[in-house]
Design a protein that fits this description.
Order of helices and strands: HEEHEHEEEEEHEHEEEEEE
Number of strands: 15
Number of helices: 5
Helix content: 10-25%
Shape: elongated
Distance between the termini: 97 Å
Strand content: 25-35%
Strand order of the largest sheet: 1-6-7-8-9-13-10
Oligomer: single chain
Largest sheet: 7 strands, mixed
Amino acid sequence: LLLFFMRLMMKKILKIVASLVLVAALGFAGLVGYLWATEYSPNGVESLQVKKQGNSEIAKVGTEYSALNWNIGYAGLDKDEDFFMDGGKMVLPLDKTHVEENLKNITEIVKNERANVNFIQEIDEDSKRSYNINQVTAFDEALGLNSILAYNFKVRYIPYPLPPLGKVKSGIYTATDFKIENARRFQMAIPFTFPERLANLKRGFSVIYTKVENSDKHLVLINAHLDAYDKGNSGKKAQMKQLLEFIDYEYKKGNYVLVGADFNQSLKTLTQDEINVVPKELWRAENFDKSLLPVGFKLVYDESRNSARLNNKPYVKDSEGTYGFIIDGYIASDNIEVLGVETLNQEYRYSDHNPVKLKYKLK
């Protein structure tokens, strides 16, 4: 009799386990199906909507201009935060107030710098991680400049880690007082395969064409944010190849070309020992291969100050386990005279990156 009851109980347990496994499998299949059905699948080249808000300038030869390049970390990676992908523990920012205060200060800094061109990366339009605050609208209202947005990250629901990242709608934003003739998004290589691809970034670079006074040439303004967590840097290498081929093509047409980007590579060439300062299990910035730059181009960055920090812990200047990189800067064609470049010392108060300001002239 006891044996009978034991067998009966075992059957019930197996049925419960089988039911739970079936429910989990169906749930996973349903999630994959939902993400597949709603997957962001951009075309190779797409036209971008231009928001015309302010007075439009025509680029002039010999006039001093400025550009500002800043990965704002969706206003959620300030000095008090860490991030799970960098070896930290946090998935979402501490609270909505942090994001609101960061965004307010970031837009104020950008506005006060009065750059003719602003290259902004990692700006959220509608994401759980930034409490669904429309940061694009905040920038448009603060700057009042002509602007474009190109999506890099557009997923209805990211199911990992815990708590889940949830919805992400984010991209790269460019605002300028130059007249925008047209604007396009160019899809870059995607290093992720199915099903990981469904809930991951699909990066592209954005391009603005603006006319140069008394000339048939254009000033070509390019905003880019290359992959960070691609295995073996395969994504970055393929993306860099596409970007460099494109700028070479535009330069050979006689145009002026300026790229503002978070390259996610060390722009300052480091020795292997310098790279190894960051523990192997954490994210490292490998060297930008300067030999790949096309003839007629230069890499422009401030060698004196780091432009980004690792989010393995909240930021305390010079504390143990604090790591910094120079990964943000510009590529300029040699018909653009570089007058100066400076990484503004914001001490990562509102973002895990500092803004990089460029002064330049068209020759």
